[in-house]
Q: What sequence folds into this?
């Protein structure tokens, strides 16, 4: 039986790479993003791999919309095997400069979105004989408190740390039918970091043991493993994908 996955923030960057890796692994993939044109391009690439694709233009912080999307995926494909919470946004402002609205928005996009889609998807997975897998993209900022490059600061670090707490608590509640894990990427070459990498790539690379910044495909390889390993005895964990970023 073909398995299915839902990827938030699936239009480009890490989300796109993960969606294509899942398609290569035999999954039909539903995409959620605000970027309609880029999302349509990713959907075409999924279909070029012989898999089915669904697209939903949506604000992931909308609780009701998340439930409606999961319901439509279930009605169309009759199952949901993997949920990848990837959607996110950074706000690099210092604590005395960020507004309440900006802080709330950063938390909503990065953390509340995970709650929204897990709240919708978990009942579906618990009812399935095969259970399911929930994977959420956190960040090394959750562990370090934010890198000195000022890619992100307090709101982002707090939201990404919240994902780790949510992952651990949900692993206890949803096991044994649903495995819940998180991934903490380091500096990854995406549109979000394009300007920073253009200006400081050599400096940033010098602080990474592997001698390079990461790629979306580096993260996608871990997502594919967590989604496909049949007898995986891992849940409630976070996996750091940063090339051992010892200084930044």
A:
């Amino acid at each position: 039986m073909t398995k299915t996955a839902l990827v938030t923030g699936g239009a480009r960057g890490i989300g796109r790479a993960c969606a294509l890796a899942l398609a290569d692994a035999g999954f039909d993939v539903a995409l959620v993003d605000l970027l309609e044109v880029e999302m349509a391009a990713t959907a075409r690439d999924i279909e070029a791999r012989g898999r089915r694709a669904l697209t939903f233009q949506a604000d992931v912080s909308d609780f009701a919309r998340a439930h409606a999307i999961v319901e439509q995926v279930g009605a169309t494909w009759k199952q949901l095997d993997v949920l990848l919470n990837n959607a996110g946004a950074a706000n690099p402002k210092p604590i005395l400069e960020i507004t309440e609205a900006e802080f709330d928005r950063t938390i909503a996009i990065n953390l509340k979105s995970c709650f929204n889609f897990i709240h919708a998807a978990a009942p579906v997975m618990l009812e399935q004989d095969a259970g399911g897998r929930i994977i959420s993209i956190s960040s090394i900022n959750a562990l370090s408190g934010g890198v000195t490059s000022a890619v992100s600061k307090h709101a982002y670090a707090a939201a990404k740390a919240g994902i780790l707490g949510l992952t651990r608590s949900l692993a206890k509640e949803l096991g044994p039918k649903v495995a819940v894990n998180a991934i903490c990427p380091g500096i990854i070459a995406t549109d979000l970091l394009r300007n920073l990498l253009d200006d400081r790539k050599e400096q940033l690379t010098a602080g990474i043991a592997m001698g390079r910044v990461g790629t979306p495909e580096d993260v996608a390889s871990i997502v594919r493993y967590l989604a496909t390993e049949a007898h995986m005895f891992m849940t409630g964990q976070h996996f750091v994908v940063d090339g051992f970023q010892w200084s930044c």
Q: What stands out?
A: Residues 3-240 form a domain with the Rossmann fold fold (CATH 3.40.50.720). The chain has a mean pLDDT of 93. Residues 100-127 form the longest helix (28 residues).
